[in-house]
Amino acid sequence: MTMLNLNLPSLSGSGPAKGAAGTALTATQQCYIHPVVLFSILDHYLRRNESQDRVIGTLLGVRSDDGRVVEVRSCFAVPHFETDEEIQVDMEHHGAMFALHKRANAREQIVGWYATGAALSKYAALIQDFYSREAAPFSAIHMVMDTALTDGRLGIQCLQGSAIGVGAHPENCLFLPLPYELQYPDAELAALQAAADSAEAPGGVAALISDMDQLEKTIDELRAMLARVSAYVDSVCAGTAAPNNVVGKYLVDMLAVVPKIDPSQFSALFQTHLQDILMVAYLTNLTRAQLNIADRLQRIV
Amino acid sequence: MAEAKQQAKPMTTLLQDDVDLPALDVSSIPKKLLPVLDVNRSEPLRLVKVDPLAILKIVKHSRENFPSSVNGQLLGLEIDGVLEVTNAFAVPTFLGSEEDMTEYQLEMMQCLREVNVDSSSVGWYQSTRLGDFMHRPLLDVQASYQAATPNSNSSVVLIHDTTRSEQAGNLSLRAFRLSQAYLDLAKDGKFTTQELADKGLTCGSILEELPVHVEVSSLSSVLLNELQWPAGAEQDLLESLQRPSSFNVKQRAKRMADLSAVADDADASIETLDGGLSGLLPTRPTAYLSRPMCTNALDLNQSQNDPTLLSRQLEAVGELIDDHIRFAHQWVYWKRGEAREKNRRQQFVQRKAQSNAARVARGEPAEPEPTEDELDKMFKVLSEPTRLDTLLNTANLDLLTKGVAQSRGPALTKMFMAQGLHGGAQ
Lengths: 301, 426
What we know:
The complex is a heterodimer of chains A (301) and B (426). Chain A has 301 residues and is α/β, with parallel strands linked by helices. Chain A has two domains: 3-182, 3-Layer(aba) Sandwich (Cytidine Deaminase, domain 2), CATH 3.40.140.10; 259-301. In chain A, 45% of the residues lie in helices and 22% in strands. Mean pLDDT of chain A is 81; it is low at 9-24. By secondary structure, chain B is α/β, with parallel strands linked by helices. Chain B contains 17 helices and eight strands. An eight-stranded mixed beta sheet of chain B has the order 7-6-5-4-2-3-1-8. In chain B, strand 2 (71-79) and strand 3 form a beta hairpin. In chain B, helix 15 (309-361) packs antiparallel against helix 17 (388-425). The longest helix of chain B has 53 residues, at 309-361. Chain B is elongated. Chain B starts with a helix and ends with a helix. The chains are: A alpha/beta (301), B alpha/beta (426). Chains A and B meet through helix 2, strand 4, helix 3, helix 5 and strand 12 of A and helix 4, strand 3, helix 5, helix 7 and helix 9 of B. Strand 12 of chain A pairs antiparallel with strand 8 (212-215) of chain B, so a sheet runs across the interface. Chain B: Residues 48-182 form the MPN domain. Chain B: This is MPN domain-containing protein. Chain B: Keywords: Cytoplasm, Initiation factor, Protein biosynthesis. Chain B: Pfam families: eIF3h_C (PF19445), JAB (PF01398).
């Protein structure tokens, strides 16, 4: 089995550097992360081996042409073994997994790697060096997820390596924070919403609800928000609460978004749309009734 | 049939390799897992529990390949009639041969097993666009899955409706498996009117739907909480509000445009841009999710995102109705032919009996009565065309019309909400 054996030079006394980390590579400036990546990392962490307290894996995604914007779309786990002296990364697994992934999703390339834990691993610079070469000609990003829940939060950090010091050594790497943003496509939002509903339910399990129930829930929440805002505005008008300019500005923004439509125009629109909806509903119901009759008749024959 | 080739293949049989397991110590096994080890037990499946990870992977795969339909493998475990789906992976749609497909899935599952992912297949998933997923390949693949699992009940197909998830702002994920009645009939390949009536198989009872629950691990709920209320989100919001509002909107638009730099296709990103800036509701903060602004549930412009969706659905309904009529005509044609043959056969028997009676009256010996076999040979009755296509057609029609009818309720509600808002504004 091919293993990537990485040793810290100070400990093993190995020779000069193999490549330069972060030099002459286009620096990434903005990073977008898909939620599926975060869930994959958590799942990997939950399924780690008994003696392990850190897991690492490869991040896959796409880049803009100039390499400045990165979108991390998926990831996969890479087994590794780490002691005080050295770290072994299962390169065979990494290669096989990437090849498999490539077949199902040709667009995604290696953009970096992730690790869990509250702090950077002491081998981070070495692994970063390896992934920089994998991600060439662009720089690799490193994502750290604080699964130890320091400060009671699940902190997520995006970093990129930058060469430091005189001469290029893979172990000389400074990790700089990289601004990142989570991306929620519409379909994923719906999925996350369902997951969030389950998380609030006792035991973390809940059934999926129908569109209508979902809408009802949403409207209820919207009404609660409106009630809260009205109460606040009333209390400001009455002088009981201190006015806050920022909130006021926000409310003005919000009201400005409501489109102004002429009442007669609106009612005309409303009527035609209503008729369309009712027509469609009528036709589909008619079709269903016909189908039912046909089905019953078939059984009589 | 090319489509059928691309479908996932059950993997369970292939993975049962002969690994020498150390002797099991029953006491060391968690109580929850004991039923799993009992091979002879067979409890009917009653519930499907899906992990958010599996859901997100399915959603991502279907979304990126929209509008073509994709499929993949589900991994998990069945315990006590509850199927837990914990992971999923995509199966490439353009793999050539069936062997490639099998090899791909096998390799993937082995790789995943190395990192302790559940490596037993519990079914597969497929994405649909309009909601009409009842097709022969689906039934065939699902049948092979159910045949491959030992007690034939721990395999489901999850159907993810991408458009519905996106537009209604509510996840549309349904779990199905084939009913026993269908499996019995499929074994003989006999789908005649008589058999269907005997077994009571209708378009609604080909597939059994199972309730889908979403199960979130504690760590995942921490993550969800973090996504909903990230540290510093309020600060960001306050900062962005310190700037003039017009610039604010522009900046948001710019941020959306940034996203499009790496987005799949330009169309999708333009849609988000329009959807984000127009409409009744304020723009959605992209940095965090919080109800109710985050989903499209309240989006009045549903039809604007994809103006052709409803008409496409209705077109599909129209086509299916045409097919339905065609099938009905075919059947009636066959029925007429069958009746004609029967008629001729009856007349022949009668004539024979009459001539025999005449011969007996004349004192001649009667001709031997033709046997049933001889009659069958003389009057060939065409076998009934298979009713499966008709059945599937009806099932699709049922699914489509149901989907359209169900989406009308929320649409009406939202319209009246908009009216209420306008009434209040004046």
